[in-house]
Amino acid sequence: MHTDDLCRRLWVGGYTAEMDGSAAGIGLIERGPRGELEYRGTAAITESPSFLGLAGGVIYATGESGQVVSAFRRDGSALTPLGQQPAAGPFPCALAVVSSDRGASHLVVASYGDGAIGVFPLDDAGSVLPLAQALRAEADEAHDAQHGPHEAQDGPHAHDVLQVDASTVLTTDLGTDCVYVHTLGSAPALTRVRDIRLAPGTGPRDLLLRPSGDVWVVGELSCQVVVLRPQNGEYSVVAQVQLPGAAAGDHASAIAVNSAGTHAYVGLRGSNRVATLRLNDSGALEPATFTSCGGDWPRHLVVVGEHLYVANQRSGTVSSFAVAADGALIAEGAIAVPSPTYLLAD
To answer: Model pTM greater than 0.90?
Structure first.
């Protein structure tokens, strides 16, 4: 979530022709004082930059079709390439810059194709150095960690990366129904210390850290938000909240929270809805309502101040919603944007 005063642009990840998309690279949307949007075209030509991250004035992108990760120096509305590196596995789909308490920074990249988590050092300018480490899911006698029961779970499929504190990094694997816990150090940068087994068929996708320390996990296949709570150094599942409006065959996508921290929004691909959850008086997450996403295949969404923006991949649109004080979404229309898959507020 970003404040209205600070955000004047949205960088847009998208699919290019190699992924059957119409984008040419990273796009740019300018945001007006009332939250209105205007698409300004392609800021950097690159293959299928499906996920974006920003750290230290550098934008990082997963090149999902080309199995690469790229860096771009941001200068206002311009992007200057800083080079790229091969990813640890096929179809890199998410990334995060993580920093240890010793000051070292690394780019951690999740590859959907084989479940690999790649760790890349960053130089002083923010450029991505060659791959230093790769972690992959392994089966054990107690749990076949190679896949879950859903047809989309044909093997490990890493999907998100989240640093929760100075020494802990979580990653999701949609294929194995696991959230992996890593300690962050220097050599190696990540050490996988345990896994959190979710219910079979959950398909953990996106992660969101809450001020309380809870972590919300979007179950793409179960259409739930799973609440993880840190207790005595371990994470426990304390709630599984069904997404309102989810239809059979839906795939849940991204999650965002309103500025007041009282409501959460999750995209539902298939029924093309945005599910709304609320925190009740006891602080527990519960279903509230749902609304049309205003397009087709809501791949990503972001809250900026009192607006929610939704990237509708298949319709080639970004929808705008005003967020009311009670968390309700008020549709304000959509603009054409080629094959958007990610919205990065800046």
So the answer is: yes
